[in-house]
Amino acid sequence: MSKKTEFYDKLRTTLNEETKFPTKYLFKFIVPTSEEGILQIENIFNDGGAVINKNVSKTGKFTSVSIHVVMKNADTIIDKYIQAEKVEGIISL
Asked: Which superkingdom is the protein from (predicted)?
């Protein structure tokens, strides 16, 4: 079993044990500041009525992106993280 699979299995278990669904969930990412990367993240969450906040670092090299969105279950949360992994240089918090 890969480390990613183990991580997502543990996350799924934790979410199911500690969260009542549907729930408002906070996703936090850091990406290199580029219009393309930020747009990719926004597109991942575009369909769910997400509230997206962006904050550029002091140096301007990175942008933090916080997304508040209602999620139906643990699997939908994990699906969003997997989609976000495809954004170049992204760090999930």
From this structure: Bacteria
Which pTM was predicted? 0.91
Structural domains of the chain, with CATH: 3-92 (3.30.70.260)
Q: Concatenate the DSSP letters of all residues of the chain into one string.
A: --HHHHHHHHHHHHHHHH-PSSEEEEEEEEEES-HHHHHHHHHHSGGGT-EEEEEE-TTSSEEEEEEEEEESSHHHHHHHHHHHTTSTT-EE-
Q: pLDDT tens, 43-68?
A: 999 877 899 999 999 999 999 999 99
